[in-house]
Amino acid sequence: MPGDHRPLVVVMGVEGAGKTTVGSRLADELGVEFIDGDDEHSAAAKERMAAGIPLDDATRAPWLDRLDAILREHESSGLVLACSALTPAYRQRLTRGVADVAFVALVAPRDVLLERIAHRRGHFAGTDLLDSQLATLELGDDVKTVDTTGSLDEVVAAARRAIA
Question: pLDDT tens-digit profile of 78-98?
């Protein structure tokens, strides 16, 4: 039935953009599961990022493959996945064999991102990775961009419009 389609959405962006906060709220509103891609990183990758060392492609590849499998598992039930998905190549690897995935890129000025990262608790990645991620980020025609400097309600509403 056409009305039963559940969306597959990747809420993406650099650290501090609000992927977890916006993604979990968006999933609630869409009635689908939310998964934070950060939870799928290996312990070694988390240690590396905690030390301020960006992941290289070899370290990132198994993580993207795990997330691709998760997306495939949720094709019929829908899912909102928080994942940096910084480049078109990463987004392609993330969605191999998965049709109809919407990418919502959360963006904010660097100073806003730095402030958010400095105030969050319990996350393995600190401000040391932000500039590397900003330099790597490639927004293209495959993503819908949402400014995250507004209220949570405004940002989630904009994300919903972006995937409509």
Answer: 999 999 999 999 999 999 989
Q: What is the pLDDT of residues 94-116, one digit of tens each?
A: 999 898 999 999 999 999 998 88
Residue type, position 103, single letter: F
Beta strands in the chain (DSSP E): 8-12, 33-36, 79-82, 101-107, 144-147
Which residue is listed with tokens 């997330």? 67
* Architecture of the structural domain at 2-163: 3-Layer(aba) Sandwich (3.40)
Which sequence spans correspond to the domains of the chain?
2-163
How many residues are listed for the chain in this entry? 164
This prediction's pTM: 0.88
Is the Cα dihedral 47, 93, 84, 99 positive or negative? negative
How far is residue 31's CA from residue 55's CA, in Å, rounded to a whole number?
32
